[in-house]
Specification:
Elements lengths: L2 H4 L16 H11 L8 E7 L12 E6 L5 H9 L17 E6 L3 E5 L10 H16 L6 E7 L6 H12 L4 E6 L6 H15 L7 E2 L10 H14 L1
Parallel strand pairs: 2-4, 2-5, 5-6, 6-7
Antiparallel strand pairs: 1-3, 3-4
The structure holds guanosine-5'-diphosphate (GDP) and magnesium ion.
Length: 233
């Protein structure tokens, strides 16, 4: 009764603070995890194709990293429940811009260009790096990075390079495993364990998601993001 209306407002404030976790916190956490993030508004806020065009937004930014084709745009569309809003390029490696989506007027989800597209010429890689580093180094920079990895494939050298770029700047990273629908439950679990080990993060902290299978919802990802932003403020 009344619980649903408060989620993501006061609720996120109290968890993951091990010093005072109460039963009520645990219950609320349960409600949040198993309920849907309510999207009140989602719109394209800004875009940038060159370092000069990168804005300095006031809202906290969640930057989305991942190889071309890993499912960045699809995940954002799923998270925002707006299939048509997100620019999804039909040619892999062609999305060279940075797209800022404003959600519920509280944060920006930032769709960054993909990397590691094997057919792209070398100059693309340099272009990617200069645009993305300009993005990261323009104040205030992202509050959190989501790093997307295809659940079927082990992280690549490029994925590790991206982690280094983020770690150098002390930007916290939330790893998200995409295309969870492509594996059986047991293979999914195995893959998440392998990934956690490779990235040296605790088991259970990598979320499997799917843009195609509603049984792998994005709510745990939302919950982490909101809890995180709340903790930073
Ligand atoms: N089966 C499956 N396919 C997906 C999923 N997410 C994305 N895809 C497909 O993977 C391709 C690349 O997705 P896209 O979101 O454009 O990747 P991006 O390049 O990282 O933005 C598209 O053909 C999507 O339909 C998913 O969760 N499950
Ligand atoms: Mg894309």
């Amino acid at each position: 009764m009344g619980m649903k209306s408060v989620k993501f407002q006061g609720v996120a404030r109290n968890f993951y603070r091990p010093d005072h976790v109460t039963l009520v916190d645990c219950y609320l956490r349960h409600v949040v995890v198993h309920d849907s993030m309510k999207i009140i508004s989602a719109e394209l806020h800004d875009q940038a194709f060159t370092p000069e065009q990168i804005p300095e937004p006031e809202l906290p930014q969640i930057a989305v990293f991942g190889r071309s084709n890993v499912g960045k745009s699809s995940l954002l569309a799923t998270m925002m429940r707006r299939k048509k809003l997100v620019k999804i390029s039909s040619t892999p490696g062609k999305t060279r811009g940075i797209f800022y989506y404003r959600v519920n007027d509280i944060l920006l989800l930032v769709d960054l260009p993909g990397y590691g597209f094997s057919k792209a010429p070398k100059v693309m890689a340099a272009q990617w790096q200069s645009l993305v580093e300009a993005y990261l180094d323009k104040p205030p920079g992202p509050t959190l990075a989501m790093h997307l990895i295809d659940i079927r494939h082990p992280p690549t050298a490029d994925d590790h390079a991206v982690r280094n770029i983020l770690e150098e700047r002390q930007i916290p990273i939330l790893v998200v495993a995409t295309k969870g629908d492509k594996l059986s439950r047991s293979r999914r679990m195995k893959s998440l364990q392998v990934m956690a080990k490779e990235f040296d993060v605790p088991n259970g902290t990598i979320f499997p998601v799917s843009a195609k299978d509603a049984s792998l919802p994005t709510d745990p990802v939302w919950e982490s993001i909101l809890t995180f932003i709340d903790g930073v403020e």
